[in-house]
Request: fold
Amino acid sequence: MQRQEKSIVIRKWQRIAASIWLFALLIQILLFFVGLMDPVRRAASLWGKSRDERLTVVWQPGSVFTSIAKQFPMNARIFLMHPNAMLQYNSVYYFYPRIVTITLTNGLYCSDEEFKAWDEQPTDALLFSNHITYVLTLEHGGRAWQVRGGVQQEIAEWESAHASK
Amino acid sequence: MLLSDLPAQLFAIAVIFAAGGAVFYAVENQPDRYARLERIAYCYPLGLSALGMPMFILSWLGFHLNVVAITSLTAGAVLAAKAWRRRPLRQYWVGGVPEPWKPLTEFEWLLFVIIILCLGARTVACSLAPLNDWDGIAIWGTKAKVLFYNTVGTTDYFHKPEYSYSHTPYPLLWPFMYAWVCTVAGKWDDLLMLILNPVNFITFTVLLYFAIKRYAVRTVALGITAIATSLPTVMHYVECAQADVPLMLIWGSSLFCLFEWMATRRMPSLLLAAFLMGGAMFTKQEGKIIFIASVFGAVASVIAAAPAGRRKSLLGHIGVYTFLSLVWVLPWLIFQNGIKDYSWDFGGIGLSTVRWSQILALAKTIVANAIVLKNQVDLPKWHILWPLFVLSYAIAPALRRHPWGCLLLIFVLHAGAVGTVFLASRWTISLQSMEIAFERFTIVMLPPVWLILAKAADDSYAQWRTSNAILEKPAIKGMKNPARMTKL
Reply:
């Protein structure tokens, strides 16, 4: 008899616990609007805008890098001066299939420290042997050089076109 | 997104479904065990697994992705499956006795509307937002672009140290799928290819609902599915072109099949699970961890619940599962073995680099990740999901028994192994530095959590209904189609 009473007490406790747990689950469900707002806000911020405008809204560097990349031919091989991590990662993606490299010595630049220590300067011989066709820096408004026969010639039009960005 | 691109996008997706359909058709001899929509939904993750590896092998051999080649390959697979199964396609896909329809209650309508709103809103947002996520650009987008313009066999991408930031040894299934959509469209377009992101989300939602409905009442299945579709973290990462949500989908599908095998010991379920697991290992490095955890979970299921006389044959089943999964991903593992990992965070790590003294800091970080309401960029995370998960063990004793205990084992092994990898890495063990990565890793861990929560909810709901004497009919589960019920 005692055992039976104990069993009933436990079941009651379990029922209460289950009800509380279910209530908590209901709260979790009813918080759906918090998650829902993520795509709603996103859609509201992009609705009615052109593709370029939307890229500018969601990832402004993407818009800038795309416009820079378009100024080079698709088969360009570009040596990127004064890199940092963000510059390199973005340029590799947005320039591809144009090849962007920050090293002519197959150096390893991964960590922040390694980027800070970066000091590669393109010599004509290295540019020639690596089939580099352009040299680019995005510092101070940006400058670009075309490499012909290992010799660099600055592209004035590119600079003026880019300076406005 | 241009409407003119829509036919190409739909064609790319249709080929994925067709490839998966061939696998499902060839392997599963009892389609009636699945709802019609569920059968179709399984085709998508199976298609991702089925197409990823042939695409990789062809690319490794120096062939560019080619619409005619991949479509012909898929058509060949469909014809081969048809010849093997010899069952009318229409009867197979739309046949079977549909479950008796019971009108939705008001609460179920609410849950249904929540699910549709979340899926709809995410789909619209995905169709508007071009590629923007940092890892999506630097890792997965870069790989996809390389595979679109070049081939695995001819590019120097995998062996140049300067690309190490993009984790060159990471698997290629997902980049191949993006490259596939762009190949069908005939141009590289990093908005157009993102059509796959909402498809992942919708497919996972459908599969989760039906997986839960095998052992829980409809209200619970809708409730847990509503939580899964509206969870802020999942919602956020669906848009990002990263491989975590695809992995959640492929591994989740595999788990649902493996769980079905634990309950029924049906070989076709295990074969589907194996095939999907092969795909999971080709989606993210984490797939290997999940594979090992799943094998342990399956072995535990045999030890815990199988009669002594059947253990040997069931362990043989697991041998087949292991063999098939590994065979499917083997070409990639061979290729991957030749890629040196130069990355600053995970490059050169091993057991010797594990910082055991940081375990406490890791535990704190895990707890903080689970209970903090918003992350460092002010995005909501999990609400009260993890406290609910922990407390479910207090209110549902069935969770400690087979096969639910095996799900917990898989979850714990998965989470523990991911934690160990972080201990071995060069990451500073703190929420500040690891939170975003942790969120993504946690998303992948969710499939067993949903099943466990659903069981706890089903038990509690039944108890609550009984105690409140509002149970209209004695056998709620009697509403179900017995062919699709899994007795647990």
Q: What stands out?
A: Chain A touches chain B through 49 residues (CB under 8 Å). Residues 1-10 of chain A have pLDDT under 50 and may be disordered. Residues 2-50 of chain A form one domain. Chain A has two domains: 2-50, 52-163.
